[in-house]
Amino acid sequence: MKRGPLYPTTLVPMGEEPLEQLVRLRESIDERDVELVRVLASRFELTRKVGVLKAAHDLPPKDPAREEEHFAYLRSAAEEARLDPELVTTIFDAIMAQVRRDHLSFR
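Below the sequence we write its predicted structure tokens.
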């Protein structure tokens, strides 16, 4: 197992059987996955409102300056959270691609 700042040994509690730990940890992961889905749904609800507003006022569906600024902010947040900024960028690239498709559909 890799050790270092991203893999602290304190993440796995001692005193439990390994399979019990595995089940408990996987249950927690599953809960976080559902949380992520709910957050994504909430985010897309907001971005759809933005898309409708842009379409109603003939604003462009894409704002490259805003995206560049926001991606820099997300990379910084990823580093602070000790996540790989490239992973976060890849995830948000996919999210933003869907947002742009949604925005174009409102035209």
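The chain is about 70% helix and 0% strand.
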